[in-house]
Amino acid sequence: MNLKLFGKRINRVKKIFFRLMSLNVNNTQNKIDFIYQIEQIVRFYASFIERFFKEVVFSTKKVFLSDSSVRVVGGFAEKLLLRVFNRVCLSYEWIVRWIGRANHKDIGTLYFIFSFWAGLVGTGFRVIIRLELSRPMRFLKDFQLYNVVVTTHGLVMIFFLVMPMIIGGFGNWLVPLMLAVPDMAFARINNLRFWVLPSSFTLMGFSLFSEGGFGGGWTLYPPLSRNIAHSGPAIDFLILSLHLGGLSSIMASLNFYRTWGNSRSGCHNFLRVPLFCRSLGVTRFLLLLAIPVLAGALTMLLTDRNINTSFFDPVGLGDSMLFVHLFWFFGHPEVYILILPAFGIISHVIKVGVGKSRIFGKVAMFWAMCSIGVLGFIVWGHHMFTMGINVDSRAFFRTMTIIIAIPTGVKVFRWLATLWGGKIRRWPIMYWALGFLVFFTVGGLTGIVLSRASLDVILHDTYYVTAHFHYVLRMGAVFGMFAGFHYWFPLFTGVGLHGVWRKAQFISIFVGVNFTFFPQHFLGLGGMPRRYPIYRDNFFFFNYISRWGSSVSLGSLCFFLWIMYEGMYSQRSLIFPLVPKTEVEWMYRVYPVPFHGLMQRCVSYQPSELRKTMREKLSYRVDSKNSLK
């Protein structure tokens, strides 16, 4: 072979590859250049294979090939290489779209996929817990392993199911559409904050499989989280995982405020912003204040474990109660971080489900959410009634906890007032909305019971508390997510799900979660403590009912996955939505929503300019009338 010519061709291929690396395939002309360069590389390699057979194989005289056979080999190589490079091009475009793209719709879809997968993992842990409690010490046969499962279940459901889906999935999809802006303000940061989350989940997986895992509960209380109880790296991996999750939340909050505050149109003033965006605004405020406190507590715990500080070690004049205060200063606002976006979703669903153009008392709903957010930071002490706080502090936190029920009641009664006088449509979304109202009300009433310090001392760390926060979060926040998912699924995908099956799935999960968690109130009143895989014989009946309800819920979840598969397979296209024209996100009338909804921000007038224009029109009309006289 001519090695000099071969070297020149290799240099040419290198230049082509460098050109490919610098191309942006979003542009049509660049796509044409991309395909042309690929064809050049294919022709080079095909000619190289042909020359190799002709000059090397044929010249050895061991293989007898005619010139026509060599050309056939070269043509076959060209076709094969074209097929391979076609696959490479497709995979390259796929990677660019789903890994490097900053479009808010794609990132929202990635959040949905990740949250569904994490939710299935958390559901698996929940099934293991119920199996162990249905037959104590027959399944896991290990106290530490049981507590590891309980701890991981709580952390996965809070930080990797509810928060990513309700804030990341719905937030990324809907906030730019509702504010009528092209995309989030910092699109690349929006992409980065998603890819931080799988890294955080991976570190939690490392924690689960490192020296038996961490079984100290999702609250991470020392001394259970110190070296004296868990000397391995499991808790260190868990701390790093929560640090990355907090970093993702802070980036998301800053991005949202930049979009909400500076990118929306001038005519889209504060009081005209949809309630879902307002609920996310209050949620981001809570995240920006609460996440740094958690990060500081976790950093101090990490230094206690690894560089011999004593923030929480009484031997070095530290105080374990300091961590409890810091954690619950984050932990109780975290409850409202999870439930406030669900409030916004339910407001939209109820408004559309009864055929009204606006929610009853929209301004009062917003100020109720603000009140909940502010009061959420001064009620953390009701988690510590059994930890030795003084009588005055008990009275203060008890009073604040009861007061926070007032704005929550305002929201519930505003939803009921919206339902009153409207025609409630028998849509599946209304089933989920009404189920949310029932469960959240029951969870709120049990919260009022636990706000009494004297009762909380008796019921603390029993299954009554477990039933309370599962009615608020498991059935409150998750039912809100289901309602929003069924409502906006045609907007996201352009297809509809089976109407009758969706109602059947709601009824099955409604029955399942009630049979799972309602008996736990009686277990707590009887004195059964949490985080113990064994119990007295008189608790067996309610645990058995709870296990049966858990099985029904699991079957309902599998049914929901089948409904999604059937909907995507059947492709029931959405022709037009039965929603009022006040719903900004449905204004495109093309479903699914186009990949690029808006190329630029809406043209609008500032309020001052609008008033000036109206004043000029009014003065012109007055002058015209005077001239006619």
Secondary structure elements and their pairing?
Elements: H1 3-22, H2 28-57, H3 67-100, H4 104-134, H5 143-179, H6 187-208, H7 234-263, H8 275-306, H9 320-353, H10 362-375, H11 391-403, H12 405-419, H13 428-451, H14 453-459, H15 463-493, H16 499-526, H17 540-570, H18 607-628
Helix pairs in contact: 1-2, 2-3, 4-5, 4-6, 4-17, 5-6, 5-7, 5-9, 5-15, 6-7, 7-8, 8-9, 8-10, 9-12, 9-13, 9-15, 10-12, 13-15, 13-16, 15-16, 16-17
Outline the structure in words.
This protein is an all-alpha fold and 629 residues long. Helix content is 72%, strand content 0%. The chain contains 18 helices and no strands. It has helices at residues 3-22, 28-57, 67-100, 104-134, 143-179, 187-208, 234-263, 275-306, 320-353, 362-375, 391-403, 405-419, 428-451, 453-459, 463-493, 499-526, 540-570, 607-628. Residues 20-29, 56-67, 69-74, 601-611 and 620-629 have low confidence and may be disordered.
Largest sheet: none
Percent of residues in helices? over 70%
Order of helices and strands: HHHHHHHHHHHHHHHHHH
Strand element count: 0
Going by helix content, strand content and strand pairing, the class is mainly alpha
Low-confidence stretches: 20-29, 56-67, 69-74, 601-611, 620-629
Return the average pLDDT rounded to an integer: 82
Q: What share of residues are in beta strands? A: under 5%
Radius of gyration: 30 Å
Amino-to-carboxy terminus distance: 102 Å
Number of separate helices: 18
**Spatial shape:** globular
